[in-house]
Specification:
Number of domains: 2
Number of strands: 15
Shape: globular
Strand content: 15-25%
Distance between the termini: 21 Å
CATH topology of the largest domain: Quinone Oxidoreductase, Chain A, domain 1
Amino acid sequence: MFDAILVEKPGDTQTVSLTQAEEAQLPEGDVTVDVAWSTLNYKDALAITGRAPVVRKFPMVPGIDFAGVVAESSHPDWKPGDRVVLNGWGVGETHWGGLATKARVKGDWLVALPEGLSMRQAMEIGTAGYTAMLCVMALERHGVLPESGEIAVTGAAGGVGSVATALLSKRGYQVAAVTGRASEAEYLKGLGAASIVGREELSGKPRPLGKERWAGGVDVAGSTVLANLLSMIRYGGTVAACGLAAGMDLPATVAPFILRGVTLAGVDSVMCPIARRREAWSLLAAELDLDKLSALSVELPFEAVIETAPKFLDGQIRGRVVVPVAPDLG
């Protein structure tokens, strides 16, 4: 038996509980991991509350990422005792995830815990931080460099936005942190933001083209926010889009793309190829300020995850939320 947050749907109504499950219930996989740390992400909160159809199969253990120690393995790359990290690959949606003391997954989904990072620190980074690094990598691939000009980061007080702000500022970029919470200004400046932009500046009806303002952007919102952001990107700039917190629609025109040569670079963290994952994690371990990383994070007891999920969706939580599932493992 092992402890798990279990989302079930015995009829028309979804239920969720912290309970015990049997190892025989674990899904197929060639590596079994003792989970030490996990996280609470936006997608996890949706899965737990049922506010969006994130869970594709029931019953389901949510938790889109985890760090832990290999307990059993028939995969050639992994042996018992290896310290590993997992992000994405559908865990918490179609495959049991990390909000449990055990997980069974495909070995091809795992990344070795980078040297110099603890398992808690890996989860302080988590999917949000890993996605933020993928966004930074996308900007650089498209030629947006520190000397190009200021970069707008939407949802800057959230998990992805906080880490993106810290990473970009560490690399020498000037960051315009976009937030709907004016009270977070000092927090964001502490992460390295050069300026604070009220979310209302990107919330009105989008124009086909606005005043050229930013060299690039990292967007977690989608919808009207992304449409406005695109209209204000300078000639030849790029926006790395990785989220849909404001909606899946995009009420924009082609004007920024064909008149200013703007690039909209989609960033997917779930099915990202393993080579790029390893690169992202290596860069995170080398570049992210661990003191700032701790400042980004709050620790949430395993037994408090379910009751906290609605607060997460209502914007009452900032930065990263780490969950000590079995912290004695490391």
